[in-house]
Amino acid sequence: MNLLFIGLIVAAGMGLSFEAGLLGPLGEQVGHLWATLSIFGVGTALLWLIRLFTPHATFTDWQNISKWQLIGGLLGPIYVVVLTLSTPILGVAMTMICVLFGQITKSFAIDYFGWFGMPKQAPNPLRTLGLGFIALALLFVYLGAQ
After folding, report:
1. Which residues, including other chains, have CB under 8 Å from residue 33's CB and lie 6 or more apart?
2. pLDDT-based confidence at 113, cuts 50/70/90?
3. Contact 73, 113 (CB under 8 A)
4. Which of 62, 69, 102, 127 has the largest count of CB atoms under 10 Å?
């Protein structure tokens, strides 16, 4: 079962690279904020259609949701705007390795401190080595682009 999720996440990661490749040129054609708005507009329409044809899940009243959990709604557009701005300058590979390095380093902090209700996980030598390899990949991709 874990292999299925790993495969899905790898495919989703490939989708992010595809999206970065689309957003850079789109941002230069229509403007970076309009490119972001269009991506979220299409995504919102798709989610509404999916929701229309799926069974109704229980919905918790917005009043009962911790407000900090909605921060993701702010982070998504910021991420997409930064992606739209940087991809034409850095290229897709450099942009994505930077995203990966940022995601992994923040993930280590979330696991270590147990933020957002996640169980605490101390870094072990293999995980730390993996982070080091990602840092090296960032360096090699950067040097290769010079």
Report:
1. 81
2. very high
3. no
4. 127
